[in-house]
Amino acid sequence: MTEPPEGGSRRAVVTAPLAVAGLCLALPFAAMLWVSSYARTGPAFIGIPFFYWYQMLWVPISTLLTVAAYVIVRRHERIRKAGEQR
């Protein structure tokens, strides 16, 4: 019979912060894959059809959501490691 690796075997646990981080990463994909929600020309914004400015709006939104997910995961890892050291 094989022995578990040194330090014991750890099971991956999905906690609320990790679920929120996953949602932050999945939201832009869902928004861009749902093409029928933005496949139209109106309303225009400074002469740019809705189809284009909606997609460009998601660039900074995706950036902010990715940063939020990164911060959440890093904070979660820091808390988890601090709990293991005790």
TrEMBL record:
Keywords: Membrane, Transmembrane, Transmembrane helix. InterPro entries: DUF3311 (IPR021741). The chain crosses the membrane at residues 12-39, 51-73. It comes from the Bacteria. Signal peptide: none annotated. The keyword Transmembrane helix applies. This is DUF3311 domain-containing protein. It comes from Streptosporangium nondiastaticum. The lineage of its organism: Bacteria, Bacillati, Actinomycetota, Actinomycetes, Streptosporangiales.
